[in-house]
Amino acid sequence: MKTREMKIMNQGLEDEMEVWGYRPCLWKRILVGVGSVCSGGLLLLLLYWLPEKNDMLCKQDEFKQWFRAKVYVMSGPGERPFDSLDLQSTTQVANGDLGVSTTREEHHGKLRQPVQIHYFTHHSTKYYWNDVMQNFEFYKGLEDVKMSCVSIHSDHSSGLPKTLQDYRRLFFGENEIAVRVPSLFKLLIKEVLNPFYIFQLFSVILWSAEDYYYYATAIVFMSVISIATSLYTIKKQYVMLHDMVAAHSVVRVSVCRENIEEAMSTDLVPGDVIIIPANGMIMPCDAVLTHGTCIVNESMLTGESVPVTKTSLPTSGEEAARSFNMEEHKRHILFCGTHVIQTRFYAGELVEAVVVRTGFSTEKGQLVRSILHPKPTDFKLYRDAYLFLLCLVGVAGIGFIYTVILSVMNKVPAKTIIIESLDIITITVPPALPAAMTAGIVYAQRRLRRVGIFCISPQRINMCGQLNLVCFDKTGTLTEDGLDLWGVQTAEGGRFLPPEADPAKESLVNTVFVACMATCHSLTKIEGELSGDPLDLKMFSATGWILEEPTEEETALHNPIMPTVVRPPKHNPLTHSTVQQVDLFESTSCEIGIVRQFPFSSTLQRMSVVVRRLGDKHMQAYLKGAPEVVANLCKQHTVPHSFTETLETYTRQGFRVIALAHRQLESKLSWHKVQSLGRDLIETNMEFIGLIIMQNKIKEETAGVLLELRQANIRTLMVTGDNMLTAISVARDCGMVRADEKVIIADAAPPKDFHPASITWHYTENPDAVSERVTPQDQNYHFAVTGKAFAVITEHFPQLVQKLVLRATVFARMAPDQKTELVEVLQSIDDFSLSQALKRAHSGISLSELEASVASPFTSTTSNISCVPHLIREGRAALITSFCVFKFMALYSIIQYLSVTLLYSILSNLGDFQFLFIDIAIILIIAFTMSLNPAWKELVRQRPPSSLISGRLLCSVLTQIVTCLVFQVLAFLLVRQQSWYETWTPQSDACNVSRSSLSHSPNVTSPHDQKNIKNYENTTLFYVSSFQYLAVAIVFSKGKPFRQPSYKNCKNCLILMQRYVWKEIMVQFAGHILSISVFLIIALFPLLCFHSDRVCSP
Fold it and tell me: Which residue ranges does UniProt annotate as crossing the membrane (predicted)?
């Protein structure tokens, strides 16, 4: 890579970066050193805030953030970790931080020189230079080889030799997710060098130079408390994360090399083969199962506590020939950090898994990376806040020039000019602004916690205040988690039999249909209790059958695997009423063993099992899944002619329908042969045997919440993997689609037989009738789209996608990746309030009993969607609080700026204790208490503003500024027209009595006011501005419709009343000084401010 050459890494991916290369330059380093000495270290501070450009790479990510990383060099026998090497001798040499290794290889009698490899580390990921690509790349793991599933079995069955393992460790490092807890000293330096605290330090030095020692000491004290609190919080978070990651992250594992040997999990590299013990383990890496079956608890990654069955990677068939992919084959992958509860294995064979990813490349590692290096919350409010601060800096610049000119005209000493000119800058930029704006979010987070909503990303709370669209899943979200079995309808001879309510009745208990219900599931026993998917549990319990799993002792005693066995209750007599039943149940025994299981795939929308009835020569294959999918896999003569009509009848009523099928396998298939077959060979030429009809009841809270969201003009969508007509029925029942509104189904077909892709539209009420043209003014319709149609439209009709999703309400049969794609499309639409900032920080809510779920920023322990209005209300309250606090802090700075500017005209300023009283006793306390207003009890159609740079908000702020300026100038001029007014001299003291009254006491001496603080103008403006701070706080404390009224904020009301009483007492003691303006301040000013703000603000 050449100097100053730019490369784009991870192009098209979420973490795309621009990389610039730099080399050290001696004369530039000398110049920087000289500049740092001459600037007193200021240049070094600027370089710390900006990326340094020597002997390193500079990287800019999608958020325009700059990072720097030093490039290291190591030597090795190859350039890439998966190169095929015939290593004869390898010697590793430690070389400082570079981790250099040198390798000598005898190749055809010649000594092979080691290859120089350049790399750098960014956010716990190593990037290596590729000479062929002429760019940096990173290695995820074994999937980088692009091998098929069969190749993983054939090439990695015996593990890695020691030399190749050492070589790969050069690139992947130790298999460890290392969370380094920084020392307090490093955290302190990083915190202190924050621009905010540097500005505080500059201000404290300046105030000390002006002899404001008390005020400077108070600010230093508060800064120390703030830094200490921040250090404690950051250190605690690091320690908690370290302890969470470190638990079970380093364990001893059994590794297949030349022999099976014990090794530390930190030594694992992609390609190693590990043995999964029978009693389970915490996975130290991502590994794909090649032999055996595992029951895994993945709650750490998904938040779902339902155990998942993982099966071995296919070794034959179409699926085995495909390239291995982490997402496509995740049902075969044991993810790092998940708990393997139990395994299924041979007596002579072990449960084996091939290591795919290690360290920070694992799923758990990527999660930890996202916590250690979170993406910035690019919200419009924060961008506008920075722009507003720049405007304040511009105002400060005007004051700076004004002060310099005025001081020069009055022949003020140069030192005083410099100090006072810089002081006007410290006044204009409020130092407590960041902390004050954060207070509203903290209070909202506390209120959310009280109602069972937990947040791992507090900044997202403000974003929730701008939501105008919510996507819901169906099952478990809008409807109950558990399904009730409504009935079953068996099929025989190409026709449906009458539906039956109870599959456990004697006439059905020993049929193929019930056998399929009892075996085609992924249930397992954990501590004696059945556990698994709620649908499987409900379906199995309806049969009345019993599931028995072999113990470890039983498994060890038999050469073949001891299968999971299901059998009907012992008291149920055998019945043989049909020819089909007689063919299936030739033996007097009813026990069925589950030989092979193909877990449910959301992409395939089905699952299947291979079983053998005890004593039978033939194995049976059972299949269940989406009716449309199952019907396509069955022999057409076995599918009833009324299949489509019957399915529509049930789905229109909101039932969830599952189809069952079976097939008798060839007798020559052995147990070993079945274990190596792909599911595509099993799930074909099936015989259709019937339907299971499940009733999914809508939760009581669903309809009310959706009505509340609709009344608040918040659009709601349903995105589900269920049947289209079922989803539409549920949408109507819960009020997402009203009774008088039409639903138009958009169906799309891909190109086929030289026919282009096409879209058809039809109403749900009359599928044969093509819908007429709908005008934009007609709002009485909704679109419904299936996942298949969505994929076709996205690929072949991209110009229609945004128009379609703007009016679509139901998305059915959506795969997980399609749900993600849909959200991205919605977030890219201009009318959609979740802008690019929300696209990178999605406000998702997980309904879970856990207090924190890594799957989403918010987790609700309430198992219904009533948490959604709560979250939006608190988001709106927090957002409007941020606006209120920002406007208050900006007005506080401007009011103080106006007072100081007017006093500068008479070469005066506020005193030490006056600044202290204003900032501590008034501003700081009010800024934190005015954020305590709770959220308004209802969701209104109006949404809070999202931008500070808007006409109405700027008008509100500017009107307040003009009002404050008028009253301060009026008070400043009126006091000088009073008969008792006297111009300040070093011998006068407006706060006491004239020096002439003390002339008769020659022995009495008083200190002179050399700084011109004790004068009438100073005292007048101090009182006036103090009342203005209180009045502005009241004016900007917005209540309805986003927050509760201010009078319900008891703490803030008490603080304001107390401050008003204090000021009244101070005015009374001030005597006649303010008698001319008390009425204006107390009566007219708040009234004028209140009405002007109501006119100008939304």
Answer: 30-50, 213-234, 385-405, 425-444, 883-907, 913-932, 953-975, 1020-1037, 1065-1088
Which of 15, 473, 502, 680 is labelled catalytic?
Answer: 473
Helix (H, G, I), strand (E, B) or coil at 852: coil
Res 40: pLDDT: 77
CA–CA separation, 717 vs 707, rounded Å? 13
N- to C-terminal Cα separation, the chain:
54
State how far the Cα of 522 lies from the Cα of 597, in Å rounded to an integer: 8
Strands (DSSP E) found in 727-807: 742-749, 758-763, 781-786
Residue 292 CA to residue 353 CA, distance in Å, equals 9
Give me the residue label for tokens 């990173």: 138
CA dihedral 680, 681, 685, 690 (to 10 degrees): -60
Sheet with 293-297, strands from edge to edge, namely 281-282, 339-344, 293-297, 308-310
- 174 secondary structure, DSSP code: -
Q: What is the pTM of this model?
A: 0.72
Are 679 and 598 a contacting pair, CB within 8 Å? yes
SS3 per residue for 1021-1057:
HHHHHHHHHHHHHHHHCCCCCCECCHHHCHHHHHHHH
Helices 787-796 + 816-828 axis angle, to 10: 50
Tell me, yes or no, if 473 is annotated catalytic: yes
What mean pLDDT comes out for the span 1059-1065? 59
pLDDT of 199 > 50? The answer is yes
The pLDDT assigned to 660 comes to: 93
Residue 551, SS3 per DSSP: coil
User: Burial, 1047: exposed, middle or buried (Cβ in 10 Å; 0-12, 13-18, 19+)?
Assistant: exposed
pLDDT for residue 990: 55
SS3 per residue for 966-997: HHHHHHHHHHHCCCCCCCCCCCCCCCCCCHHH
Q: Residue 941 pLDDT more than 70?
A: yes
Q: Strand pairing partners for 747?
A: 760
State which amino acid sits at residue 972.
F
Mean pLDDT lowest for which of 108-117, 457-466, 516-525, 747-756?
108-117
pLDDT greater at residue 78 or residue 690: 690
Q: What is the pLDDT of residues 32-78, one digit of tens each?
A: 888 888 877 777 777 777 654 444 455 555 556 677 778 888 887 87
Phi/psi for 972 (5° steps) reads -60, -40
For residue 207, give the 3-state DSSP assignment: helix
The structure tokens 């960041």 sit at 434
d(CA 538, CA 544): 10
Q: Is the pLDDT of residue 426 over 50?
A: yes
Query: Of the segments 71-85, 408-422, 836-850, which one has the largest average pLDDT value?
Result: 408-422
Q: What angle do CA 98, 354, 141 make, to 5 degrees?
A: 40
- The torsion angle over the Cα atoms of residues 192, 195, 196 and 198, rounded to 10 degrees, is 60
- Calpha distance 859→463 (Å, rounded): 16
